[in-house]
């Protein structure tokens, strides 16, 4: 729907700051969305508005009451966006910090005996946290191997290593290296069939910008996103915790409100800017459907985003007009495989005759922003099994266009020789 509407594409792109130019580089195509998506203009304005307000929540004055209302309204918006009618939403330092905190709470607050399970496909935000706190708690860590060819981990892989004494499990929704999504609901079912009381924490950081989050359908206990990767700004993360996770001994101020995850005075602007994100999805859903219910419009937006991004990644992989796709280049490796139906707006590739660093540099010189993923502590778990030292990540969002993909493919035709 987005792909075939020039007017809608224009309206979408007009909603974002620096959509086609960098304040430092000048004109450029932004294919580095997995490193941080573009920011909504509304978020920029809202940030400035709340940064100027000196008042805090919890005081007996009109400004304080207004700020409290903004936070309350934002949490209600979050509940709709994530489809989480129960549980608590709160903000923290970052998505990684919140992931560590939820996992720490689950590991340290659950049974003294038991095990922690996670997969080799996970980002360090969840994997490092799970391994660290399992070690501190004296619990074994079970590592579920992912499929190197697809870049995914399956419910069957989890089921094969599950034991009844698993108390905490972690799941990656979408990989920031391969761009391939995992079946969160299916993995959660596989976990609960064997350890029904396990606490399940999901890293949704890479998935969020592509829409289609549905916590109520997952049967999980925690979900975390980084707003700067879903059209908001840096400086905070958003977490959802189930009521049963909140009932554990959480870190909070003594004699303070029960079940309060927030420590210290929060930035009201963080909550307000996430409201801007939800409002944008709501607006987009109204543009691509006739739905009137906010949740239905958000679901419609997610479906349209997925359709548009699939059209762009298919063109990127298989070519458009007379331009060969990335999958058709000589000596290419496509992480996750070219024919992967679970791809979400990201193609990561390597050429056997041109170093990834050279590709990124040459694309950047032509005003096409991409990113190198190296076999380091962030991406080594994905790249090393494939025998790759580095790969080029091309990540897009629904505001990117087919014309931008054409520019990338034209450049790659020359670079690949």
UniProtKB/TrEMBL annotation:
Keywords carried by this UniProt record: Lyase, Pyridoxal phosphate
Domain Aminotransferase class V: residue ranges: 29-246, 303-408
Alphabetized InterPro entries for the sequence: Aminotrans_V_dom, PyrdxlP-dep_Trfase, PyrdxlP-dep_Trfase_major, PyrdxlP-dep_Trfase_small
Keyword Lyase: yes
One Gene Ontology MF term: lyase activity
Domain of life: Bacteria
Pfam families cross-referenced by the UniProt entry: Aminotran_5
PANTHER family listed in its UniProt record: CYSTEINE DESULFURASE, PYRIDOXAL PHOSPHATE (PLP)-DEPENDENT ASPARTATE AMINOTRANSFERASE SUPERFAMILY
Protein name per the record: Selenocysteine lyase/cysteine desulfurase
Lineage summary: Bacteria, Pseudomonadati, Pseudomonadota, Alphaproteobacteria, Rhodobacterales
């Amino acid at each position: 729907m987005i792909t075939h509407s020039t007017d809608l594409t224009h309206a979408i792109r007009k909603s974002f700051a620096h959509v086609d130019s960098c304040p430092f580089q000048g004109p450029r195509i932004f294919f580095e969305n997995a490193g941080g998506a573009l920011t909504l203009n509304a978020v920029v304005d809202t940030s400035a508005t709340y940064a100027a307000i000196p008042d805090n929540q919890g005081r007996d004055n009109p400004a304080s009451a207004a700020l409290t209302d903004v936070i309350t309204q934002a949490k209600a918006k979050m509940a709709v966006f994530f489809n989480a009618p129960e549980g608590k939403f709160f903000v923290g330092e970052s998505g990684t910090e919140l992931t560590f905190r939820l996992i720490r709470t689950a590991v340290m607050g659950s049974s003294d005996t038991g095990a922690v399970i996670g997969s080799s496909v996970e980002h360090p935000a969840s994997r490092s946290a799970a391994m660290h706190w399992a070690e501190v708690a004296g619990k074994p860590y079970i590592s579920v191997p992912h499929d190197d060819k697809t870049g995914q981990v399956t419910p069957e892989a989890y089921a094969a290593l599950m034991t009844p004494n698993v108390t905490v499990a972690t799941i990656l929704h979408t990989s920031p290296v391969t761009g391939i999504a995992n079946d969160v609901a299916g993995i959660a079912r596989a976990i609960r069939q064997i350890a029904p009381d396990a606490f399940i924490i999901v890293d949704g950081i890479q998935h969020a910008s592509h829409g289609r989050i549905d916590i109520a359908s997952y049967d999980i206990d925690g979900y975390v996103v980084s707003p700067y990767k879903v059209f908001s700004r840096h400086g905070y993360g958003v977490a959802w915790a189930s009521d049963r996770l909140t009932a554990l001994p959480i870190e909070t101020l003594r004699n303070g409100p029960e079940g309060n995850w927030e420590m210290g005075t929060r930035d009201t602007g963080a909550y307000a800017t996430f409201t801007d994100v939800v409002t944008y999805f709501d607006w987009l859903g109204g543009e691509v459907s006739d739905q009137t219910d906010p949740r239905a419009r958000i679901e419609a937006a997610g479906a349209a985003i997925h359709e548009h991004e699939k059209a762009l990644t298919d063109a990127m992989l298989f070519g458009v007009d007379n331009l060969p796709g990335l999958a058709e280049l000589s000596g290419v490796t496509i992480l996750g495989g070219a024919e992967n139906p679970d791809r979400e707006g990201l193609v990561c590739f390597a050429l056997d005759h041109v170093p990834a660093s050279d590709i990124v540099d040459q694309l950047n010189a032509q005003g096409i922003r991409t990113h190198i993923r190296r076999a380091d502590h962030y991406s080594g778990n994905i790249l090393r099994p494939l025998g790759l030292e580095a790969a080029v990540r091309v990540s897009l969002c629904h505001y990117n266009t087919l014309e931008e993909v054409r520019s990338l493919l034209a450049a790659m035709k020359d670079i690949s020789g």
